[in-house]
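Translate structure to sequence.
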């Protein structure tokens, strides 16, 4: 039996209400929370790079996880409007220009790279998948340059024809690669997270 639209909305609203109660800016925080619970990628004092960080819920959660000794940098085309700890630096800009921004900050190496980037969807599945993989490949290029050996990578991707090739590209760079679909993901969504653990 298909889940009714009312039930689908109720499922989404549950996490939206929970985020508000927990003082997080968006329901997407619970995806990272599930990943952290399963893989423990965010250690105390770690340096975190968050690609596609708006509206900021992943930065909120990651800042709590790494503590006051940690350092976080987030980048997004959309400005962040929430208050964040002093350990967080937000760049309003394009990930394709990230290298220059990081050089200006004097922070070019990270223990964890997170990518929750998603393209503006068109409704055309093939176009949306192509745009998604382009962002994933950009994130992987950043991993090659900025992630330290032994580091971890989390990347959102829309499942499609290029999914296996991207997962294999991650597998070649890490000791372990896995795919994970959080319970908090909307039922109709085709997104999944490719995770790389232990960069070679």
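Result:
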């Amino acid at each position: 039996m298909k889940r009714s639209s009312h039930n689908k909305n109720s499922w989404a609203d549950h996490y939206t209400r929970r985020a508000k109660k927990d003082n997080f800016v968006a329901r997407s925080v619970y995806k990272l929370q599930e990943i952290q619970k399963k893989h423990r990628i965010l250690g105390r004092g770690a340096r975190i790079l968050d690609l596609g960080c708006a509206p900021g819920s992943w930065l909120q959660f990651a800042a709590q996880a790494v503590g006051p000794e940690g350092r976080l940098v987030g980048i997004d085309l959309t400005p962040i409007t929430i208050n964040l700890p002093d350990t967080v630096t937000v760049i309003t800009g394009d990930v394709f220009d990230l290298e220059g921004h990081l050089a200006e900050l004097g922070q070019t190496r990270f223990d964890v790279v997170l990518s929750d980037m998603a393209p503006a969807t068109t409704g055309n599945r093939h176009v949306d998948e192509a745009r998604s993989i382009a962002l994933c490949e950009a994130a992987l290029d950043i991993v090659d340059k900025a992630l330290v050996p032994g580091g971890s990578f989390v990347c959102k991707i829309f499942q499609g024809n290029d999914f296996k090739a991207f997962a294999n590209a991650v597998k070649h760079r890490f000791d372990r690669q896995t795919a994970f679909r959080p319970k908090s993901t909307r039922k109709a969504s085709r997104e999944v997270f490719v995770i790389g653990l232990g960069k070679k």
